[in-house]
Design a protein that fits this description.
Elements: E1 2-4, E2 9-11, H1 20-26, E3 38-41, E4 44-47, E5 52-53, E6 63-66, E7 71-77, E8 83-90
Antiparallel strand pairs: 1-8, 2-8, 3-4, 5-6, 6-7, 7-8
Length: 91
């Protein structure tokens, strides 16, 4: 598996940090989406609530979100908990 990352941490975003079009895109995801935390990566907004725990499969990463059968976005939470390092896993 190949993992692509620049090792930079991206700040968490709240609902109010999103643009009107980004809010509209996520508004129907679930009832309390306005209490979620988000981040931007490769032109997309991701909800951290959509990420699953990695376990021992990807050492050094905390969560993943499948984007296709062959790829997933990985996240690693910062030590202070207000940012995420993001990677793209390709198989």
């Amino acid at each position: 598996m190949k993992i692509i990352t620049n090792h930079h941490y991206r700040p968490w975003l709240t609902w109010h940090d999103l643009s009107a079009s980004e809010q509209k895109e996520h508004a129907d995801d679930y009832d309390d989406v306005q209490e979620s935390t988000f981040f931007r990566y490769r032109g997309q907004v991701y909800d951290l609530g959509d990420f699953m725990y990695v376990g021992r499969d990807h050492v050094g990463w905390d969560g993943y979100h499948n984007t296709s059968f062959f790829s997933a976005v990985l996240v690693k939470y910062s030590d202070d908990g207000d940012a995420v390092k993001v990677g793209l896993a390709l198989s």
